Fold:
Amino acid sequence: MVKFLADATTDEILGVHIIGPFASELIAEAVVAMEFRASSEDIARICHAHPSLSEATKEAALAWTNARSTSECLLRAPGSRQSTPHSPHRVPFRSQLDALLAQRGYSLDAAQERAAVRLQQLQDEWSGYKAHRSNALKKLLVRPPVPRGVYLWGDVGRGKSFLMDAFFAAVPLIRKTRVHFHEFMRSVHAELHELRGTADRSTRWHAGLRGAIA
Structure:
């Protein structure tokens, strides 16, 4: 068993509990991470050999990171009305982002600012799309173009997950899923494993993926 203890605000690793065989070997990675004041997300994003015992460290860090992301998604701008998790009416993305930045004492650099502007634009596009299809009759008669997504690229630690957490909470959609890349790839391998032995497993998997995205 591996359990990470990290600062709720900065995500800096404060300690690691390891119980089981080879604990003295597994703890070395955590010791190095703490020496360099790494975050649990840093460990979660590092590729670990598979199959190996070190995967337990990665999974524990990923579990904490996911739990923390979920908690942050529930934050709202100060003074704003709380909305339920299933409500399509959300606080503007930029308001949520500014609240999180102020809470942590962060500021955006030029590249992050451009990403934030584009994500706010995407939220506005989705809000407009939903407004044009606000009831059953409009959904039947009005078919506006579906907003195109945004692809963010950057080095580890550039704030992509931070931006996406705020955007996910703000985007005015009820049916939506927030999945980290590592989690997504684990599900891909699991689904392909279930389809092994079928002649068209790749085709069937792609069909299922398209259905999930749609």
Strands lie at 2-6, 13-18.
